[in-house]
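Kindly review both lines to help learners:
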Amino acid sequence: MSSIDLSPVTPVSSPIRSASDVARLINTVDSSVSHARMIVLLALGGVFLDAYDLTTLSYGIDDVAREFGLTPALTGLVGSAIMIGTIFGSLIGGWLTDRIGRYQVFMADMLFFVVAAIAAGLAPNVWVLIAARFVMGLGVGIDLPVAMAFLAEFSKFNGRGNKASRLAAWCPMWYVASSVCFLLIFGLYFLLPAEHAGWLWRASLIFGAVPALVIILFRNRFMNESPLWAANQGDLANAARILRESYGIHAHEADDARREPSPPPVRIRVLFQRPYLGRTIVASVMNLCIPFEYTAIAFFLPSILSQFLGAGVFETIAASLALNVLFAFTGGLLGMRLAYRYPSRHVAIAGFALQTVALVALALAGHPHGALAVGVVLLMLGTWLFAEGFGPGAQMMIYPTLSYPATIRGTGVGFGRSLCGIGQALALFVLPILQARLGTDMFWVVAISAVTPIVFLLIVRYEPTAHDVDDESAA
């Protein structure tokens, strides 16, 4: 009678010879049961910090101006300092992400947030505040390219929880952070004595250090380098190690694998060469136009509510919070679902079109009189935020991140985010002037920035979710 062998079976180890092999292995695994899922959550935590730090002074800027006795020019410099830092940080961070790796850049970047948040909250004068906000902007700019690389490179290409869906998750996370910011201000509004109400902006800025410290505490246990980045550097042995640790994939460097030298430093000009030129143009237009829109509506939302609708302090904070939670966050969740079901271009065009309708309606509404008219304006503001969540907001990260392979992904996203910083800095400077001169007619100007990307998306028909750009055979 033969005996049954009950000894454990050694899993078959998959050989890897190139970055494409790494991409194919990642696409076959259920990353929900691996460390990869925690890495994705930590990357989204970085996005939370970006959004939170960019939102904190959207309400408190008037208190800052009163406390330091600022001129309009200095007030504008306080508001735009973080965006100026973002422009430089995006270019530097994108290049470093491709040059020295995702892990080192991400972990160093968390220190920017801790130091800058505390320094800004305790600023004794406006110049310290401006410097701290600039450093905070450097952190935001450095973080987004590396966070998007992590989201794309620790996710499979198809199905639920795929690359597009997880990249789209940056948008609801952004609105979670915005809502937390307003919720914190809302709570402090009731807790602080009336004579210390000016401390609201300081407390909200300092709180930004807390999530960064949490991420730093979790880094050693879960964070890892991108296996795709390691493979593209010619380090297949390290890529195999990461696959084992982060995915539970049994892999090893193939004996016949060809030893590739480390690639030369990435140059931005590669983004303007074939086959990337058309993708870069579309991504650039989106990164210039979307922040202009976003700043007009989301950043200036408290100002719109108070000046155009006559809302008081309590009503402004409550309405800003409600609009973010009910419309923006809900739209972002829908965007995650649409991302793995429909082409990126189609979803983006639909979102821009709905935003155009909302902006035209706001321009026509003017200064509303009566409860019904006010309700319509609030609905249009909510419609814009909902469309931003599922459409442009999500796609502005999906499109560039999935348009470039891992070798130039950080550089591509970083270049786009630098343009985003330029668009937002321009908006922070121009929109108060337009608002003062045109009133609600400024929404006609903002509507142009919603229509423009539609034109380019219709002309350049590249679809980033059609195939995995990291898998050369699929491409």
